[in-house]
Amino acid sequence: MASSSLIPITQRLSGDNRYKTAIEISKDGWQDGADTVVLSRGYEFPDALAGAPLAYQLDAPILLTDDKILTKETADEIKRLGAKKVIILGSNNAVRPAVEKELINKGLKTERIGGEDRFETAQLIAKKLDSSSDKAVVAYGYNFPDALAVAPYAAKEGMPILLTRDNKLPDYTKEALADTKETIVVGGDDVVQKNVYDQLPGHKRLAGDDRYETAAEIIGYFDDKAQTGYVATGVNFADALTGAVLAAKNDSPLLLAKKDQLSPFMEATITDLQTEQFVLLGGPDVVSVEDRLAKLTIK
């Protein structure tokens, strides 16, 4: 970590790959261990999109694994944490039974939350939330940025993240919304069309022209000031996924960036939030915006 009176305090949490970056995030946020770990496959996002609120509620880091075998470094981090239970997100097709068997052989309790598709998995995760909230988030189920940008806020407020098709509300999502009074829809008309939006109870849409403006709209709706911001690439899902729970844990927004660029919307958001400390998630080849952050925060 480096700091100066002229530049923002910037920390980077990264490893050689997405699995190791998730581990570094876990080590930073759960230095003293965790009883439970949430585990997701590392190269597909659907099952994990809805997982942040549950992980936050359980004070559990999200770790990643290969879908066919338990990634060794991840196994080592589970051991360091002293975890007793691993919650696997996704069906047997997403995270194979061999992974679960290996966890059991290590003396861990396991629970699998997986439906026939991403929509049922999100519904099942929502059922696991111990929350009195009558609000829910609905996001497009076939891409990741909007759901991940809202994840820290959904986590903190105990709101489930439910998924939809662009032009049809899945039955599983309808069922999950049965007792919901207010729905926050993230994403524009192109990903959650009006006929879907109009079916949602007490709906409000947070959207922009692209993923970065949408993320800025989400942050602006939930936050008016944040001393620290977590910065992840908006081009891939893994670092934002595993970082979302840490951001929630530290009451901070998740800012999306291109590799070495911040959108004008994100820059304006950072200025409005008066953010002075930043944690970059992932290596310099993924996100490298220190210079832009410095220019924004120099007084």
Automatic annotation (TrEMBL):
Family annotation (InterPro entries): Bact_Sporulation_Assoc, Cell_wall-bd_2
Transmembrane segments: none
One Pfam family matching this protein: CW_binding_2
UniProt name for this protein: Cell wall-binding repeat 2 family protein
Organism from which the protein derives: Guptibacillus hwajinpoensis
Organism placement in taxonomy: Bacteria, Bacillati, Bacillota, Bacilli, Bacillales
